[in-house]
User: Fold these one by one.
Assistant:
Number 1:
Amino acid sequence: MSDISNSINQAIKSVVGLGPVGLHEPSFKGNEAKYLLECLESTFVSSVGKFVDRFESEICNFTGSKFAVAAVNGTSALHIALLLSGVKKDHEVLIPSLSFVASANAVTYCGAVPHFVDVDEKTLGICPKLLSEYLKNISMQKNGNCINIETGRIISSIVPMHTFGHAVEMEGIIKIANDYNLSLVEDAAESLGSFYHGKHTGTLGIAGALSFNGNKTITTGGGGAIITNDKEIASKAKHITTTAKVPHRWSFNHDEVGFNYRMPNINAALGCAQLEGISEILKNKRTLFNRYKKVFDDIDGVDLFQEKNNTQSNYWLQTLILDESKSSYRDDILKNTNDSGYQTRPIWDLLHTLKPYKNCPTAPLKNSESLEKRIINIPSSTYNNS
Ligand SMILES: *Cc1c(COP(=O)(O)O)cnc(C)c1O
């Protein structure tokens, strides 16, 4: 075992104790069972019920968003957010290659094409500086649209993703969106509880998507939400996620092709209980970060990724970044930590290398390619830490 592998193993052990310890496990310490039972007893377990309304209003309270529409998962929330922000068939949408596959899939569901761009090593999210240089070279403006000179397609939107809960440098992204006539949709699936200059991630553009999958900061089993400050987008989102049924006491009139994407009441019941505990969860995640920080500060060749100035991270997944000179040890570290019962994992394969996406337009991705080889997520649950 290499020295660095050994040190990292020892460091994790000193913080989380003896394994096995998972990467990220949910905790149900509050009213989860109570609300689920209440939901069963009400018989309203499906897509209408008081927990859905309550969950949406509590998401608004927590994020400061004016509206929230709960959906079956984060991917469907992002799909709807993109559709309502004006993404159409054969458009291109700028997304980071360094992301989870759902970001690209949601674009594809719209009939649009992902256009992969590079990230900033400081934030792990889209780099505004590299992007504006890139767009200057590859695009032109025509009739108020941003056109990709190479493909002739309209580039209609930009979708920053707040990796592992760390906010993208949104000021630069907002400027690019304005300068190039792009709608701004945030993939905030990983960043519930993360803020940029005091504003909740997902609220800085036209719409944002949250995820409440089992491995996220809080969970509804499976679930997501579209958040927006735009009343019309919110009411359209609610309409098309509920099969576009025109409200009526008995008739089945649907005025467009809708989706069955609405979050069931039983999932929202779980969500209401989870949200009651979110400040405790966020506090514990920060404590875990600080404990890791102490031990990783003493290990050469590796950094624990830390929130940047003027941002507040939810520290969803704790993240190690190996120095360039140590990247060849990544697999050895993954093997040794997993063998010792500490679930660690590399970051996702870059999206532009995946079979369905390898022919999509792609900017130079120097930072993404370097980071992909050097990132390791380490156990990030909060249960063994409170
Ligand atoms: C989890 C996640 C999603 C999708 O969420 P699901 O609820 O799993 O559909 C989208 N984008 C990113 C970056 C994610 O991490």
Note: The mean pLDDT is 96.
Number 2:
Amino acid sequence: MLFKLFLWFLLAVRPGAGYFNLFLSQAEVRKLMGLEAELFYVREGVINQYAIKFVVPVPAQVHKLHFTWENLAGRPLPYTMSVDISNPSALSSSLNISQAGEIPVGGLQTWALALHCGPYDAEVDLALRINVSLSSRNTTSVDFRRKKICLKDKSGYPGPEEVLVAASGSTSGGQVFYAAIGCACAFIAAICVLVVAYYVRDKKARRHRDPLQESRGLSSACSVERGTGVGPAQTFLSPETPPPLSAASTSSYRRLDDRPSRELHERIQEITVQRCRVRLLSIEMEGTFGKVYRGSYHEEGATSSTDVLVKTAAEHASQSQVALLLREGLALYGLSHPALLPVLGVSIEDRGAPFLLYPHTGYRNMKRFLLRCKLSSERPPRALTTQEVVEMALQAAKGVQYLHRKRLVHRDLAARNCVVDDDLRVQITDNALARDLFPQDYHCLGDNENRPIKWLAIESIVNKTFTTASDVWAFGVLLWELTTLAQQPYVEVDPFEMASYLRDGYRLAQPINCPDELFAVMAYCWAMSADERPTFSQLIVCLQEFHTQLTRYV
Ligand SMILES: *[C@@H]1O[C@H](CO)[C@@H](O)[C@H](O)[C@H]1NC(C)=O
Ligand SMILES: *[C@@H]1O[C@H](CO)[C@@H](O)[C@H](O)[C@H]1NC(C)=O
Ligand SMILES: *[C@@H]1O[C@H](CO)[C@@H](O)[C@H](O)[C@H]1NC(C)=O
């Protein structure tokens, strides 16, 4: 199953007239991406467009990039090359072949681009441009893009990217740790394969009665009305405010919700809170039509108030946006699991914007948390170890497993829809307001439906089907987000091309310093056929195994 994934390096090239090959050797691919494959950028004169687009991160410990080319033309081919560096004071480079010359006939030639980091920590983009003249009027141009990570003092405190593989508590014993993991690796991979193989058989037997093959049809209008007027924090609670959203009464969401409207109506009544009992303290996050506040809620009869998070729509939000907020906000209502954050209360009074209340126990949005880990250069960075990543993933997996047992499909698992506290306790939330707060994560494919395309399983993109197996796919992307500290997935790929990109066998690449075992788990989640993907119960077994191995050697 895993081999399928590696195929993508070898696809997308057609045999052509045959002028030259340009590729990375297996040793080079292993060094940069941790995979066992050669990576052809140009095969017989034809450029592998997918591979070219990919910005390869160059880890801090790698100082030389090797390229291999092969002249197939039977005569010397003239080339020119140049290197472009985004920040020349942080990085310089040198080639061990001349910038203009000829690709020699006969045999392979390997050459190297050496990278010399400057005196400070940086992430530097570089582009290597090569022109090869096939004839006087036919030139092939290849553009390689790399992101070099420079760490000033590699022996000292490791940067956030590096920390990912270090065991907690170890700052210098990285080599030893690697060796230990190496031994554990094969064993765990074998276990995972066995579990998955067993499971596929088991699942096939009962797939035909999986009641979760539902499509709850929670779509949202794509065209978010962009407004500018954003009222002061208090306005929506004040009774003097004119009722801008008075039309957002129960009737509007009844129409849009597919659940029996009576049931939803009852839910809302059960948890309706009085507006005057909520006090807003500070803005936590802000989007175009929605906001998230920290606040406090004083329950009737209670002696003290509790901290809450308040999700609300702005006054200029449209009815459909409000309806969506409520519908999505109530998705997890009534559930109880340590790894889920269900809504605590709701208000849809006619006067003022509707809002949703969540218990607030010192957590933060996980995507923001990860980004902050990545960007923290001034203070000691909050290092995430592989062990911590696995622990966080395990909690999230247990939350989703519980959802699936309750016959619910989340449909939008992602770091943005999780929260995490200082003790790295993870809870999964609903996706109310996520489109508004993380607009870059959602795309419309010309159908007026704003969807998290890059987190979706292929069948969800193509057929809009959502099942427990599509949640598994998204969980794989969530794992990838955890190990990359919330990089944007497939940043190079046009959302419109995602379906064919995935169909061609391409997947997210193994993040720098992501252990093979963890990447294997992700890879299983991205099996083309839903039947081949593991369930959350199996994912938990795999992650637990890996976690045991990690802690055994600490
Ligand atoms: C240049 O060479 C390529 C590779 O064989 C060929 O497909 C293409 O048609 C040529 N273009 C021109 C303008 O001659
Ligand atoms: C490659 O060719 C293009 C135009 O064909 C030119 O603009 C560019 O400067 C060339 N690059 C190098 C490295 O020679
Ligand atoms: C460039 O350096 C690499 C080692 O870093 C070596 O393998 C290769 O043969 C060199 N190429 C040339 C053309 O000198």
Note: Residues 16-17, 45, 134, 138 surround 2-acetamido-2-deoxy-beta-D-glucopyranose (ligand 1) (CB under 6 Å).
